[in-house]
């Protein structure tokens, strides 16, 4: 059977998603259990989703799922089936988003447990797409309508955020592709670690006015 353009796109995005999962473990930002779920947009109605585990993930193990929750290809453990709506809500609300990653990264999760937004006070957050505090989505049972509605409301209220903290749960990050999203997960976890450490010596300090513009100018100067 001939390979179609759609097959090529699926294979490439599956490979990228598996590489992103591996990069999170290599960066040391995962919880003790290694729990996470990752997805990549295929089109306006389908996504690739991790099957219920991410450690040692291979591209062919990813499932193809409809935004409506129907599993179209592959298999999902119930632990992943519960979170399809969480991922599809992001894709529906953010047409430019190409990948979503949910982790229980320890330091970021500390802010989620405290129900406290994570301030944007480190340059990697500026560089990798979170130039504002990471907001908190009110708690709701995992995968429930309450949780999904709360997420949709925060996304509407904060149209430029690229991540949210799920109260009493963990971190949810979204970006243009799997690699960029994984980079932001690492930046947020490192920033959360720094915030907690800074609290012991007087607390973090905000960037000066114009910091985001200065960072953008620096990136543009090197890229040109």
UniProtKB/TrEMBL annotation:
Q: Does the keyword Metal-binding apply?
A: yes
Q: What are the alphabetically sorted keywords of the record? A: Lyase, Metal-binding
Specify the Class II aldolase/adducin N-terminal domain's residue ranges: 15-196
Is this entry keyworded Metal-binding? Answer: yes
Coiled-coil region list: none
Q: What protein name is recorded for this chain?
A: Class II aldolase/adducin family protein
* Origin organism lineage: Bacteria, Bacillati, Actinomycetota, Actinomycetes, Kitasatosporales
């Amino acid at each position: 059977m001939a390979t179609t353009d759609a097959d090529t796109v699926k294979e490439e995005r599956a490979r990228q998603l598996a590489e992103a999962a591996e990069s999170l473990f290599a960066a040391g930002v995962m919880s003790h259990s290694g729990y996470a779920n990752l997805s990549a947009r295929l089109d306006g109605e389908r996504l690739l989703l991790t099957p219920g585990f991410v450690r040692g993930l291979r591209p062919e193990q990813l499932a193809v799922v409809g935004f409506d929750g129907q599993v179209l290809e592959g298999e999902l453990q119930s632990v992943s089936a519960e979170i399809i709506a969480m991922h599809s809500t992001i894709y529906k609300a953010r047409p430019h988003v190409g990948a979503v990653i949910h982790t229980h990264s320890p330091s970021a999760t500390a802010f989620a447990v405290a129900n406290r937004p994570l301030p944007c006070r480190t340059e990697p957050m500026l560089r990798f797409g979170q130039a504002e505090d990471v907001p908190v989505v009110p708690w709701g049972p995992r995968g429930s309508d309450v949780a999904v509605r709360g997420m949709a409301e925060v996304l509407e209220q904060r149209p430029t955020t690229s991540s949210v903290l799920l109260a009493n749960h963990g971190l949810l990050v979204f970006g243009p592709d799997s690699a960029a999203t994984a980079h932001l997960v690492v930046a947020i976890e490192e920033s959360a670690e720094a915030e907690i450490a800074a609290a012991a010596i007087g607390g973090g300090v905000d960037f000066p006015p114009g910091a985001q513009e200065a960072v953008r100018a620096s990136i543009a100067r090197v890229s040109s």
